[in-house]
């Protein structure tokens, strides 16, 4: 038995190292004096100061953040209301169909979303740019919000609603005073997931950015295609530190709220991945 | 009162209709149009009679299958061992944290690692093997794709394994099963829901990883995703691109259908 635990720790350690090695490799070379990702010739911060002067990249970073914040907020509102709508739909059959539809949207490949949006925007003559990216991010974030909010609705004690109504609360009050406070953790989780999806998205944005507007991922793609530039390494180091901070904050908020039985409800990045058993 | 509720969820239905159903219908419509916009069956016919496209689709399938199999092979033991550690939630978080790094940055890291004088070739050099061309090969695509998809397999597997009642395992041990027998007849069948979710979460995206085929495989690998991107953004043959899009959608439905939870007998 003891031998077994040892073997399993070794296995986990190997997986851990394999998963982190490429990332650490990236960070390590961000301090490289030479401009390559293979010969380390001494320590420098020059790639970081180059990053600081790169206004184009900074504007793109701000734009990416703007898209992520706005799209996740909008997706949270629409998705939460949608989840409430699905939950209260009378016929169980309709409900099941709607939930299945939501799952299919979650797993639908980015290229399909991107390409079909490109078709739509072209057809109605919508100019590609900030708004086209925003709209498509909202669309692919909604299903994840629904997925996060629905279980909370199912956990809710329905008698509370009946009681509230008996005591004279109108629809709006029931929503505001009973339902929303109850499902708040799910709504927050949905917002967080929508935000990370948006930050992380590349494929959908790639189809609908057009000229003149770019998100970070799209910009990194075009730079990486031209070869290695250690500015990207510096940028990814900073991004990773920020994300770790965000994830840890989220983890500890969740930990406070989580009851023992529920699985960890954070679910990594790309929106097709949120399928849970 | 029902009216009010419907009013509340109206934005949801509206948004989903306008930005999900309509675009997909447009894609279906587009697949019957030629480059000038007139109606045609040529795209469909072209796709299903072209050996190049069919071969590409098959290859795409094969790659997705290999990636899924490799991630499953690596992640299953990891998830199983994870459930036995102390502070398992924290360790899980540590293992899936890399997913919060943009996929492009990870791919970019591999451009360095696999390059002619990169980390792997330096290691090979130490072992006395000369530098191998690693980047822009099919195997590099498989390696990087597997690396990127591991956490997405790990998470559903962990959730399924962690959800198994401890008392079931104790009961099985009490009844005389050894550890392997317990695993085979109790743990493994109960973890299948996680395996199914993991396959969904890895197989479908693996069909469309066009950025990896471009950055890592140097156009040596053509997946459905690459072909769609190419037709939409490079050659602007939207009709053919849409046909492939529809094919991809059909595949998604098939995969979802095959990996669906069985209603009877399973533990939900």
Features:
heterodimer, A: 277 residues, mainly alpha, MetI-like fold, 11 helices, globular, disordered C terminus, B: 268 residues, 13 helices, 0% strand
Summarize the structure.
The complex is a heterodimer of chains A (277) and B (268). With 277 residues, chain A is mainly α.
Give the count of structural domains of chain A. 1
CATH architecture of chain A: Orthogonal Bundle
Largest interface: A-B, 93 and 97 residues
Oligomer: heterodimer
Name of the CATH architecture of chain B: Orthogonal Bundle
Low-confidence stretches of chain A: 260-277
CATH superfamily of chain A: MetI-like
Could you outline the blueprint of secondary structure elements for this entry?
The complex is a heterodimer of chains A (277) and B (268).
Chain A: H1 2-29, H2 46-53, H3 55-88, H4 92-107, H5 110-123, H6 130-155, H7 158-166, H8 171-200, H9 203-208, H10 216-225, H11 230-257
Chain B: H1 2-30, H2 42-49, H3 51-82, H4 88-96, H5 103-113, H6 119-126, H7 138-162, H8 166-174, H9 179-190, H10 192-206, H11 210-215, H12 224-234, H13 238-258
Helix pairs in contact in B: 1-13, 2-13, 3-7, 3-10, 7-10, 8-9, 12-13
How would you describe this protein?
The complex is a heterodimer of chains A (277) and B (268). Chain A is mainly alpha-helical and 277 residues long. Helix content of chain A is 75%, strand content 0%. In chain A, helix 3 (55-88) packs parallel to helix 6 and helix 4 crosses helix 6. Chain B has 268 residues and is mostly helical. Helix content of chain B is 73%, strand content 0%. Chain B contains 13 helices and no strands. In chain B, helix 2 crosses helix 13, helix 3 (51-82) crosses helix 7 (138-162) and helix 3 (51-82) packs antiparallel against helix 10. The radius of gyration of chain B is 23 Å and the shape is globular. At the A-B interface, helix 1, helix 3, helix 4, helix 5 and helix 6 of A face helix 1, helix 3, helix 4, helix 5 and helix 7 of B. Chain B: This is Spermidine/putrescine ABC transporter permease. Chain B: Residues 57-259 form the ABC transmembrane type-1 domain. Chain B: One of its GO terms (cellular component) is plasma membrane.
